[in-house]
User: Fold these one by one.
Assistant:
Number 1:
Amino acid sequence: MPGEGTWWKEAVVYQIYPRSFKDTNDDGIGDLNGITEKLDYLKTLGVNVIWLSPHFDSPNADNGYDIRDYRKIMKEFGTMADFDHLMAEVKKRNMRLIIDLVVNHTSDEHQWFVESRKSKNNPYRDFYIWRDGHNGKTPNNYPSFFGGSAWTLDSKTGQYYLHYFSSKQPDLNWDNSNVRKDVYDIMRFWLDKGVSGFRMDVIPFISKQPELPKLPPATLAHPEYVFANGPYVHQYLQEMNSKVLSHYDTMTVGEAFGVTPEQAKKFTDPRRHELNMLFNFDLVRLDRDDWRKTDWTLPQLKATYTKIDNGSGEYGWNTSFLSNHDNPRAVSHFGDDSPRWREASAKALATMMMTQRATPFIYQGDELGMTNYPFKHIEDYEDVEIRGQWQELVVSGKVPAQEFLKNIKQTSRDNARTPMQWTSKANAGFTAGNPWLSVNPNYVHINAAAQEHNRDSVYNYYRSLITLRSKTPALIYGKYKDIDPANNKVFAYTRTQDDQRYLIVINFSEKQLNYSLPKGIKINSLVLDSGSDHRVKEGATQLVLQPWQASIYKL
Ligand code: NOJ
Ligand code: CA
């Protein structure tokens, strides 16, 4: 198999959203020392790479995705000494750290932008994208992902600057070679400190459409497919690879918002020397129409997996993830977070996510089966995205408040950003202060302390899955095949490498089911099961599946 033995293909990654992970100085905000304190928890879980969401100096218009200084630590998170200490402790445990590279845009408080907006002939003017208005209006009709226009008029020079996200996140001009050079220096700075690579924020957006023509109506609802297709994106990534990445032993994963599975190969085929992997959003956005929640079916979910798997082709590689800091909690989204089925369905989803031909990314708290938050009022939300959309949609009268609130309760990013639930003590043991975002009240029974020593917990099931994956090359590299794509209750697929063949069967319903294996498939033995007393005979072709049961068999 191509690329066998590559560390980042065999890795299991754990995403940390530092603000919500662990607070050690009682200011209500998670910090770097909190991560260091919990490294043994992660080591025991079995993950070997940590992806740290932005930890850089930032005014926090978008929780650190608006960077003011790429070489400084966000003061709420600690100091550079704390970072160096974290890095050393990660290495001591034979783990690796990758960090967030947010270089499609900076903060408007970044020195480059402070200079840029001073005058039209400032040396930094061309670091950003400035245009004259068009007939007294914005230069074109680009919408911002956070509501309103993607252009803001700057009174000082009378020109507009472009921002795909909030007005505090001006987009950099990657066509300027000085921008690229400065970004590469920042990358080297962190690689020299010992990080093992980057998760690259909205990286396909760096190359803008020449002349910035207006978006035709059909693309206005999903401008990401236009933004991700600028003419020089591959050229810039190849340049970044040859100038920086190729000189270090790294892993890279691009947040590929707006890239279709068919286009993925161009980014991840190793012969092109761009990125190692992408995050494809077709799965986590399967039942989304922007902020609205829509329905999904199991055959649709399976078809998406097949499409994503095909997208990497023979040479490329994929990621597998069901949540992150921008999406609802996995168990609330694809499982059933009612008390009766939460644990069983969280284990079922874990099985699915850990047995793809891809590097798994576990989002903090999903290993405990943490759920969405019981939001009620608009004031319960903190996210810049929700605030912007509330203004644009509800305050303007376009959408009734109740309709908006009903949908964002399920789709909002804040669902995944509530503090990590460590114990059943006050504030879930996250902080002894006042948490920056409310703790989910279910921490009293859903928390790490309660699960670590319970053999049947979601946490310990994740541990078993991680151990099994790391010692089973076929579950990492084996060919993926959906063997029953139309079944709307059972997800059954094989992973095959040479003569090693595994079958994964997951019951996506709360009913017991009799399942006849497709013709020609016979069980050899049960390898791992999400329930406790499941039995299966050698040679079996019929299975009795318990509600939300997930099993891995050897064929
Ligand atoms: C994607 C990040 O994951 C998200 O949190 C952020 O708001 C946008 N990019 C802008 O940086
Ligand atoms: Ca703190």
Number 2:
Amino acid sequence: MNRLPGSGVCVAIAVAAVVSVAAGQDVALKDLMPAGTVIGVAINQRQSDGTDAASVDLITKQFNQISPENLLKFESVHPAADRYVFEAQDRYVQFGADRKMQVIGHNLIWHQQTPAWVFQGADGKPADRETLLTRMRDHIHTVVGRYKGRIHGWDVVNEAVDEDGALRKAPWHEGIGDDYVAKAFEFAHEADPDAELYYNDYNLEKAAKRAGVIRLVKDLQARGLRIDGIGNQGHWQLATPTTAEIEQALTELHGTGLKVMYSELDINMLPPAGRNADPAVANPYAGGLPDEQQQALAKRYADIFGVFMAHHDWISRVTFWGLTDANSWLNRGRANYPLLWDRQRQPKPAFQAVVDVLRRTH
Ligand code: XIL
């Protein structure tokens, strides 16, 4: 470095400032959120184990909440009737505790990522109501009980409602009946009376499904059960749902008196995966995201956070479903770009767009 007498420090500071502005990492989302709303990310096992050290640094810097992308799902934590697995799960919870983050549990009861043995009875027949209730209670008591006082809130039931608003024809429902959701909330509350309990689902910007979810949570409330919040997953596209639909859904969900959280936010940049589709159509951004799309994504995130910040008193949490585009579940063999950081862990224009909206909220 050229050193003019007395100017070395200033040059060094100037260089550092340019580097950090270029990296865009001098600012942390968690420092810009309004009081009462946390911001988080779903982390994978390489992150909670600490193997992916660079991602750990970014998560630690940017977020004050974590969700487990897969580790606390039934098949991960309870793969066989007589076997629970807790090693990596304990590390996930400790990861959050070490950093004073809000630690979420996802999820207890779902029709996916649940082993087949759960639903099997004797003689290859489907398990009956009493068997399923016993298994549900054992699972919830064991998992929620282990992390009592350490997991802030649980997605107790995930995706129980169909697009038409009726209860989904899932094995838990078929085997137990309509009150299976209530039973899950009852067992979770027994296992940790201080934990927050949530119902979590997607497509809540669609009126019929939203109405079904609101009916369901009102039924839980009418039964006198503890329920603290509704998780709106927020797996959205560039153009849909519209911000008007997002705002309408938020207003109605808030109308239940519950906390609203955006629990799995990402923006799918790809068309629906079709069979035998021309690769140029099915995987259009294999070579990179064109600038126009990059800017469209930034605007989309700005618009979404504009709605969130206009009603931030109603929103207790915003969680991205993955840290960088490399981590996203939406790739599935294609190149997707749904998140705020790119595959090199560099902030995208969408990151800056969110920062700008959050700064205007102060
Ligand atoms: C996804 C994970 O991201 C993937 O790694 C896994 O293979 C499938 O599940 N709704 C949910 C999440 O509630 O648990 C899902 O996570 C995404 C959709």
